[in-house]
Amino acid sequence: MPHKPEVPQAVFLSLGNREALYGGAAGGGKSDALLMAALQHIHIPNYSAILLRRTYKDLSLPDAIMDRARRWLQGTPEARWNGDRREFRWANGSTLVFGHLENENDKYRYQGAAFQYIGFDELTQFTESQYMFLTSRLRRLKAFEATPRMRAASNPNGLGHDWVYSRFIPKIDERTGKLIVPRDHSGEARIFVPAKLTDNPHLDQEEYMRSLNELDDVLRAQLVDGSWTITPSGDFFNPESLTKYVDDLDWDEYRWVRYWDLAATEAKQGRDPDYTAGALVGRSAKTGLTVIGDMKRVRERPDKIEALIARCAAEDPRGTAIRMEQEGGASGVMAIDHYARKILYGYDFKGARVTGAKDVRARAFAAQANKGNVSLVRGTWNSALISECYSFPQGAHDDQVDAISGAVNELARLYIAGSASIPSTVRPHRVGSSNEIQRPRLLARG
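The chain above was modelled as a monomer; its predicted structure follows.
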């Protein structure tokens, strides 16, 4: 290698966990870190590594990661380059392959492959489904020395910004002030190693900063400071419209609607798939003010979505009206009928047909928020929701805004219809020690 690892790179190379992300800011030595990590176990016989960019053009640019690897390894007799296969192969059988995933279905080219190292360069340019499929290619034989590793490097921004932020970046719990580190299903941390231009002495930092200083404020904050929470502003929500938080809420005071916007979009070329979002929104009978009590935002199989919806119905305030956006055609009718008969039987549940553009449907919610009439119950979901609102409708996702808009519009209809009285059997809520609002189990209906 042409240089020793800098401090953030050394930290990145020392990690033994399965998943890690490097970078955040521009110029932090991301490509070098990924390439070093790929070569870290190349001495082990039959070790297999792959480095990925979104397109072949990105992969083959001068000084991009494949060109950099060829410069690093030229003149190394043990490593032979095969241009047709875009592969280095060592005498001990180890390989370093370079690939790309320009189209969504390109991931299936690797369906039969097995790697002990998979590296994504500029991860926010990939879809979550591409990343998750490649994780299935990470495996080894018993007693193989190298620990399987998923490694990535990226700046903020890009079509995959939201899912990368959710998967890797630590967050502050607004209620407790504690740092929450993302973890996988086994409880192992997904580590983020930040690095900035000042961590890379091999670049002309002064000259590069002159270029970065020409960027707009948002892009500059992302590329210079490595900020994951600053996103392009939309034109619906004022910057201070969602800054009111509630810690002790009189839940009995509100009429509640839980509105579900089910994800119906499959992964497509150049698109980050939609989320299923379920917003619990209440309106006070005394003041007319609105509070967002809870937000569920997931990408799961249909059976897990059904289980989540059933669990929320059981735990939400008694008398909560449950509404679900109804798709057009016979399939939409069948989906609502399925939930009514098998999942939400006994609850106040209806399908909601929607008309008009998303931005039109969001106007009532945005108007109330901009007047300071909307508060949020503190929770770990707050930051993702606020980020989506402030970038609406230009942002990559609008699922949470859609769900809240549906709930706000339904509450307005309930009040107009005179059916917004609060059931007297609503039981008080309590705040537990976890990151979520804890609600007591409700008495059986009868």
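The CA atoms of residues 261 and 277 lie 5 Å apart.
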